[in-house]
Amino acid sequence: MDSILSVERELYALSEKFNRFDSTNGQQLVHTLETLRSTQRELDQVRKSGAALTPAQTFSLMKTVQGLSEVVSTFGTVHRDLHSSVSKVGKAIDRNFVTDYDSTSREDIFKAADQQKRLNEVILQHFYRHGQLEISDTLAQEAKLEDAHVIKDRFQELNAVVEALAEKRLGPALEWASKNSSDMHRAPEASSRAVTRLQSSSLEMKLHKLRFIDLLVEGKCLEAVGYARHYFPQFVKSHEKEVQALMGALMFASSGKTLEDSPYAHLLDTMLWQDIVEHFVKDACALMGLSIESPLSVVINAGCIALPALLNIKQVMQQRQVAGVWNPNAKDELPIEIDLGPECRFHSIFACPILRQQTTEQNPPLKLTCGHCISKDALTKLTSGHKLKCPYCPVEQNPQDARQITF
Ligand SMILES: [Zn+2]
């Protein structure tokens, strides 16, 4: 932010200078041109008449030429001044923004064909998610992604529902929910089945709730009663409190009072509509086996957070001449830990307290018999013969007894 501000300052100074130039020198320029033209006209007349220049004419001509060269020299100075201001802006940009990101990137990552394909698919999915169909189609064509139409169809449906919800039309979303509720119940993993069923029923419940509230607001209480009879019984078990609140709101509305003044005013909150869109996208993505956020935006956001720290460490390493220690092409690991914030934490990681490095598949975390956890590398280093002394609670044990743990 500071960098942007300091460049903006230079730009402001430059535009001030240009404005000043316009107001003072512009007038002078017009005047000079005027004089030149009138001199030219005079000279033309003299040439046509064929007579020689009178001494007075010669004198005025010399005067004009002299004035002209003065103007040219002042303009030269002004021009030099302006030019230096323009180059100052360029220098400010160079000074405040890093232009060389090479050191923080790895070019080999997208060299192989299947890696490139995966990258294209991620970009494609991002565009489809955001309903940018034209650009996605072109990308699918140019990148020769054959199965692009499969995700396209699903996202097209999703976008249509989201658009309808934005206009407060519940029809398409309700249709989607009832059509897909059986799919949700048939979730592939047995363990997640219960969760998805709960989610899907809660989406349906939320949709019915909004429709019900709409009916109340429109004053169609009888219709609302019918609606509740038809749709709510299936949700009474899982959403008892919500159904109770809705019935309470119905009592208020049918007694002729407006909901705004009732204890149920919160049911009219416009946030409920925003909430339903998020909920729907979440459910729809889960059904398609996709993450809620677009993977492309997750990666780019994470990169934007990490980049300043990476550039910083590169600079420090160059200054201390230890740049060779971190060769990003050789390691899958960063030289420092960068906190990306809670929204970028997807799963737990374990850093070995002894070696201070993140555990990997080759170097997994191990639980010792005393309950302390260290990495496999640390265990190997600490083991002497068939004995290992825990570095924390010096319990002596057999390193073979350590168990690998998974987070
Ligand atoms: Zn221990």
Automatic annotation (TrEMBL):
GO terms for cellular component: cytoplasm; GID complex; nucleus. This is RING-Gid-type domain-containing protein. Residues 154-223 form the CTLH domain. Keywords: Cytoplasm, Metal-binding, Zinc, Zinc-finger. A zinc finger (RING-Gid-type) spans 352-393. One of its GO terms (molecular function) is ubiquitin protein ligase activity. SUPFAM superfamilies: RING/U-box (SSF57850). InterPro entries: CRA_dom, CTLH/CRA, CTLH_C, Fyv10_fam, LisH, ZF_RING_GID. It is found in: Cytoplasm. One of its GO terms (biological process) is proteasome-mediated ubiquitin-dependent protein catabolic process. Coiled coil: none annotated. Residues 352-393 form the RING-Gid-type domain.
